[in-house]
Amino acid sequence: MSQPDTNTDITKDPRAANRARFELELEFVQSLANPYYLHSLAQQGILNQPAFVNFLKYLLYWKEKDYARFILYPHALHHLELLQHAKFRTEIAKDEWREALNQKQFDHWRTWREFKPPLDPALSDAPITDETK
């Protein structure tokens, strides 16, 4: 039994082609959330290729509200922004930078939902005590 040629099907249907491109670019942008992946790209010299740098610049449209809502890993957008800078693209090739970025990401994930007391005591459920007595 022969399989249909999906490449031919996609090129014939513009909506299918747009969807495939959207999904491919979404998956790639989300992969940028992984510091180890960024490190690997840098060590292979991919991050310094002019065509790839232009592609990273093109992908900034994912920061727009209409597209960002599809991103499951918000660090991907932060890393995409960092990748716009040549210094970051060079430094992420170093093990120390990869580990530092990985640790910062982990610390953020670990603490971002911790309870923070409200600034206005009237909004707090805790009883208000008079500490002057």
UniProtKB/TrEMBL annotation:
Keyword Nucleus assigned: yes
Assembly description: Component of the Mediator complex.
A Gene Ontology molecular function term of the record: transcription coregulator activity
Chief location of this protein within or outside the cell: nucleus
Annotated protein name in UniProt: Mediator of RNA polymerase II transcription subunit 31
The organism of origin for this protein: Cerrena zonata
One annotated Gene Ontology cellular component of this protein: mediator complex
UniProt keyword Isomerase, yes or no: no
PANTHER family, per the entry: MEDIATOR OF RNA POLYMERASE II TRANSCRIPTION SUBUNIT 31
Cellular localisation: Nucleus
Lineage: Eukaryota, Fungi, Dikarya, Basidiomycota, Agaricomycotina
Pfam families registered for this protein in UniProt: Med31
Function, as annotated: Component of the Mediator complex, a coactivator involved in the regulated transcription of nearly all RNA polymerase II-dependent genes. Mediator functions as a bridge to convey information from gene-specific regulatory proteins to the basal RNA polymerase II transcription machinery. Mediator is recruited to promoters by direct interactions with regulatory proteins and serves as a scaffold for the assembly of a functional preinitiation complex with RNA polymerase II and the general transcription factors.
GO BP terms, alphabetized: regulation of DNA-templated transcription
Family the entry assigns: Belongs to the Mediator complex subunit 31 family.
InterPro entries (UniProt xref): Med31_sf, Mediator_Med31
Keywords: Activator, Nucleus, Transcription, Transcription regulation
